[in-house]
């Protein structure tokens, strides 16, 4: 108990000390979006607006093909009437300068297009205003036409070069004016002149609306289908109500239009949103679905079953794929497997087929027994997945990539997300549980590095140019290594550096294999397990250059003397860990061979201080981070190794203080721990006691020891 | 940066100062708050004057026409409408305004709408003012100098109504437009609304649905009881009734109103009460008003309302006498 103050201080600091040598992950790998349908937006929150894109493309085609789409978009969707009117008057407003579409509109060929855009803006403004019950026209309104005039002009010009555009404006204006019979008369006159395309579809939707108002419901339905206007189609059904759930609306739609292409988007919008299985609920609980999401998934499961049990002209592969995922979300993987087989049999579309293949890898990972046969199957599956990663990688993926996305597990690039979700989220944890840590580490390495390896310049920058390496010690592979035993790391390192099988070589080819990195990691683990001879062995294999590139070195986390009770600067070389390992190894050996009890006791005290500090102030000797919880939820500060180290140090201190035969040695040892009162009471005749008396002005300086004793042994008087 | 902000602010103020939209206009209120000139309400859903009505305006040199523009009523909140109150029965303009007549736009607010009008979701004072100004601008209603709100506010809704009046007044002031509002007889005993002037409504004094009521349009005893010979806190004009109607009862239960002699829907035993105000009654009303409302002898009279059928019950001379307090 004489060194209790030191131990208590260490314990208190351990509990509150926060320092960030490495960045932790934010989401977990199982949170990647796995339910995937291609040609849809990347995130569920993004709006699906193909029309504006198609419209800009058509403008490009109708105007001038070298005009950038962004310029067209700005003019068509963002410019107000005032700006367009300024262009019409021949001036170029500041906002329009440099815009190639605006320039074209003011040229000889752009006049008709500009007239159309002015009319369309008028129409848009009036229609928007008219929808407010409080609207009343004013002479100050920035419009040139009344809605009647818009309709009239648009009708007259519906056979011009921009005929289909004018036709759309005409039916829009007439709809707002409730001229339903006129709409139908007009459409019948011009329909044949309107080419197929999104403009025709949009106009058709208004014509269908006119038919609804006139009671021609069946005709309206067929037109809504032609217009791909599912909302309009649904509203024809008497059972339809805007407050219906999304699934109820899908069910109505299925009854009238079972092979509606919109089901892809609708399914994705529901499953894409609920997919991440860990999120905050309304009561701030983590990892549970909200009640409304659960209900919606249940409803969707019933609809999937209905579609799959009926022989309607539906996309069975799509519905079976959705049913697979729902069954998995509900925790029934055997049932998911059955649905997946249905999906595999029905798949005709290549993109959906690929998504189903990914789901197969995932469901296999969930349901298989992890044996050699599965290992071979997984090898084949990963080969295919790796091919997909490489096949689809493009400039957009590379340019948009950053390491935070990967270490934070943000959905980014589907094929890579899928690999990480399956391997890191399912396979690796199962392998670790089974004891196959080597394969788990191999797979974690591939999951963490297969995509970054495609962007070597970025990795090089992190490792050599930046003041902090944001990836090698923050990725899931590093975190997994950090969470495993030294033996597991040594086994893995041996295989990684000398692969034996084709599978191991395949995994290595897409991983980060660097002997410095691995040996440093093993050496650090040895320090953590107080295996100082082994630590010296592995750390001596690490190059000096590598040591200088580690975050703990660059961040100055190794600058404190691990052999001093109080904080003191440590002038070590770049190989601080190796120096520490060597010193600790030497101390350990000297303790074993020392015959003089006083010297032996002093060595034990030095050794104990080294152990304590390497889990406290000098944590960077044994750890890569402090204060963070990683994705494997290992908290070294309160873990077994730290506890074991503290116990060993305590035993060493106890034994040392019992071993002293010379009061002067004993008093000097107490002085190291600032136990002034003990020195004064037990060794008053020593030089150490004289030193204390000469330097302690007030008795409170003695009292610190008493407080430490009370904290560690509350029953003591 | 501060200097830059100051310059921008000064420049903005200068631009606003140069703007031609909200500007002060002259108005015809006399120094003593009294205002002269014959006036009449127009309370139909379409503005379309027949020859008699046009002649009436000319013959009696009507100076002001109080024109109802729209009512404000509660709305159903639907996915496409999030307004709690909406305009209703907006007047349709079928002809141009008569020359030489000042138009005073009037908006009628139902008591149910009043309960919703101070919602935090929408600024109805702004919305209503803007709609009035738009209508005036769009239909060339001329130089608007006054806007009137008509509402049968109660003691429970007084605060809400007064707040609303304040907001509308604030929005009209930059345009040099005054705000007036109608005052029911019983409201004379309450606080004055925060407006520029009022119109005392001397009609609808009785309960129309009560079969015992003799004439719900005007009961001089009721008028007499409400007028206390005390000055009111606002300059007042006075609205006199010149309309008539038929009130229909079955088994002593109110069934409805007819504006013309009813010929359909009546059953044996039904009772129809014809209500109108004779010239004599109007003269007596004027005498009471002059006697009990200080300054009323110089105030403007507004007839409710411009309808040739109703006005044909009075001779031109009778109308002249009413307008001139003779």
Structure commentary:
The complex is a heterodimer of chains A (717) and B (326). In chain A, 64% of the residues lie in helices and 0% in strands. Chain A has a domain at 4-22 and 397-661. Chain A is mainly α and 717 residues long. The longest helix of chain A is centred in the middle third of the chain and has 21 residues, at 372-392. Chain A has helices at 4-16, 50-62, 69-78, 81-88, 100-105, 111-130, 147-156, 163-176, 180-190, 198-213, 217-226, 230-235, 246-256, 263-274, 291-309, 316-329, 333-346, 350-367, 372-392, 395-400, 403-407, 414-434, 437-449, 456-465, 476-483, 486-497, 502-509, 515-528, 532-539, 544-549, 551-554, 576-593, 597-614, 640-659, 663-672, 676-682, 687-695, 700-712. The two termini of chain A are 14 Å apart. The relative contact order of chain A is 0.08. With 326 residues, chain B is α/β, with parallel strands linked by helices. Chain B has an 8-stranded parallel beta barrel with strand order 1-3-6-7-8-9-10-14. In chain B, strand 9 (197-201), helix 6 and strand 10 (236-241) form a beta-alpha-beta unit. Chain B folds into 2 domains: 33-242 and 277-323, Alpha-Beta Barrel (TIM Barrel), CATH 3.20.20; 243-275, no CATH class. Residues 1-31 of chain B have low confidence and may be disordered. Chains A and B meet through loops of A and helix 4 of B.
């Amino acid at each position: 108990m004489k060194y209790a103050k030191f131990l208590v201080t260490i314990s208190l600091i351990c509990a509150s000390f926060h320092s960030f040598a490495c960045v932790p992950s934010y989401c977990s790998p199982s949170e990647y979006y796995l339910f995937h349908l291609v040609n849809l937006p990347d995130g569920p929150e993004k709006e699906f607006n193909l029309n504006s894109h198609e419209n800009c493309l058509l403008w490009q085609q109708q105007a001038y093909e070298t005009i950038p789409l962004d310029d067209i978009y700005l003019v068509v969707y963002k410019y107000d009437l005032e700006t367009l009117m300024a262009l019409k008057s021949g001036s170029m407003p500041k906002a329009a300068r440099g815009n190639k579409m605006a320039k074209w509109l003011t040229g000889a060929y752009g006049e008709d297009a500009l007239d159309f855009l002015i009319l369309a803006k008028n129409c848009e403004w009036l229609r928007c205003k008219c929808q407010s019950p409080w609207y009343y026209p004013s002479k100050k309104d920035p419009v040139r036409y009344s809605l009647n005039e818009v309709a009239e002009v648009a009708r007259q010009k519906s056979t011009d070069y921009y005929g289909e555009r004018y036709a759309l404006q005409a039916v829009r204006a007439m709809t707002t004016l409730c001229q339903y019979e006129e709409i139908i008369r007009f459409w019948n006159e011009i329909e044949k002149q309107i080419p197929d395309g999104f403009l025709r579809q949009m106009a058709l939707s208004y014509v269908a609306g006119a038919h609804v108002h006139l009671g021609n419901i069946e005709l309206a339905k067929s037109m809504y289908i032609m217009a791909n206007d599912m909302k309009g189609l649904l509203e024809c059904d008497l059972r339809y109500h805007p407050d219906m759930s999304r699934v109820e609306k899908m069910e109505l739609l299925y009854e009238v239009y079972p092979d509606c292409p919109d089901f892809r988007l609708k399914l994705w919008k529901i499953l894409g949103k609920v997919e991440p299985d860990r999120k905050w609920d309304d009561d701030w609980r983590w990892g549970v679905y909200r009640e409304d999401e659960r209900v919606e998934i249940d409803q969707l499961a019933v609809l999937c079953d209905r579609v799959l049990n009926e022989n309607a002209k539906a996309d069975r592969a799509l519905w079976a794929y959705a049913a697979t995922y729902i069954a998995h979300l509900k925790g029934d993987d055997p049932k998911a497997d059955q649905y997946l087989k249905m999906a595999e049999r029905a798949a005709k579309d290549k993109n959906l087929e690929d998504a189903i293949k990914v789901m197969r890898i995932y469901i296999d990972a969930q349901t298989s027994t992890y044996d050699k046969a599965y290992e071979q199957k997984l090898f084949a599956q990963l080969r295919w997945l790796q091919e997909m990663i490489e096949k689809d990688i493009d400039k957009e993926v590379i340019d948009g990539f950053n390491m935070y996305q990967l270490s934070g597990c943000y959905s980014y690039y589907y094929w890579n997300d899928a690999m990480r979700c399956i391997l890191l989220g399912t396979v690796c944890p199962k392998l670790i549980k089974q004891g196959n840590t080597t394969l788990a580490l191999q797979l974690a390495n591939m999951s963490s590095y297969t995509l970054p390896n495609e962007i070597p310049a970025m990795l090089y920058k992190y490792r050599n140019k930046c003041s902090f390496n944001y990836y090698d010690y923050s990725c899931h592979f590093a975190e997994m290594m950090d969470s495993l035993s030294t033996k597991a790391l040594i086994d893995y390192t041996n295989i990684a550096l000398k692969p034996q099988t084709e599978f191991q070589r395949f995994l290595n080819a897409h991983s980060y294999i660097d002997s410095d990195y691995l040996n440093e990691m093993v050496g650090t683990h040895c320090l953590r397990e107080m295996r100082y001879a082994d630590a010296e062995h592995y750390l001596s294999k690490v190059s000096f250059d590598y040591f200088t590139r580690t975050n703990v070195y660059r961040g100055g986390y190794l600058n404190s003397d691990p052999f001093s009770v109080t904080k003191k600067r440590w002038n070590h070389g770049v190989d601080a860990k190796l120096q520490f390992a060597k010193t600790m190894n030497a101390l350990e050996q000297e303790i074993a061979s020392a015959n003089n009890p006083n010297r032996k006791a002093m060595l034990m005290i030095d050794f104990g201080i080294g152990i304590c500090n390497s889990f406290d102030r000098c944590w960077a000797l044994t750890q890569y981070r402090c204060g963070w919880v990683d994705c494997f939820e290992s908290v070294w500060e309160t873990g077994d190794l730290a506890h074991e180290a503290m116990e060993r140090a305590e035993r060493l201190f106890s034994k040392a203080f019992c071993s002293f035969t010379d009061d002067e040695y004993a008093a000097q040892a107490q002085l190291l721990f600032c136990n002034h009162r003990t020195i004064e009471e037990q060794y008053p005749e020593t030089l150490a006691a004289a030193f204390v008396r000469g330097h302690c002005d007030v008795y409170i300086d003695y009292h610190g020891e008493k407080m430490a004793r009370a904290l560690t042994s509350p029953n003591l008087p | 940066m501060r200097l830059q902000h100051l310059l921008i602010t000064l420049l903005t103020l200068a631009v606003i100062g140069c703007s031609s939209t909200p500007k002060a206009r002259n108005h015809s209120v006399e120094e003593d708050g009294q205002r002269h000139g014959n006036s009449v309400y127009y309370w139909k859903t379409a503005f379309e004057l027949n020859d008699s009505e046009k002649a009436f305006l000319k013959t009696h040199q009507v100076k002001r026409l109080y024109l109802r523009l729209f009512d404000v009523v509660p709305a159903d909140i639907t996915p496409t409408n999030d307004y709690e109150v909406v305009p209703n029965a907006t007047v349709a303009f079928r002809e141009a305004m008569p020359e030489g007549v000042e138009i005073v736009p009037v908006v009628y607010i139902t008591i149910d709408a009043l309960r919703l009008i101070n919602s935090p979701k929408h600024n109805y004072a702004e919305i209503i003012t803007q709609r009035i100004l738009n209508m005036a601008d769009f239909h060339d209603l001329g130089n608007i100098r006054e806007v009137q709100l008509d509402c049968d506010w109660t003691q429970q809704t007084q605060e809400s109504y007064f707040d609303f009046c304040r907001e509308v007044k604030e929005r009209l002031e930059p345009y040099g437009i005054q705000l007036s509002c109608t005052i029911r007889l019983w409201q004379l005993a309450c606080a004055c609304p925060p407006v520029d002037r009022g119109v005392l409504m001397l009609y609808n004094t009785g309960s129309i649905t009560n079969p015992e009521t003799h004439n719900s349009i005007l009961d001089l005893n009721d008028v007499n009881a409400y007028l206390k010979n005390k000055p009111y806190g606002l300059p007042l004009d006075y609205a006199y009734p010149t309309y008539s109607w038929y009130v229909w009862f079955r088994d002593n239960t109110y069934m409805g109103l007819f504006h013309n002699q009813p010929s359909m829907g009546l059953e044996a035993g039904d009772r129809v009460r014809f209500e109108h105000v004779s010239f004599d009654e109007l003269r007596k009303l004027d005498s009471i008003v002059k006697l009990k409302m200080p300054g009323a002898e110089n105030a403007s009279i507004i007839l409710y309302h411009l309808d040739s059928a109703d006005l044909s019950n009075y001779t031109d001379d009778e109308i002249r006498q009413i307008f001139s307090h003779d």
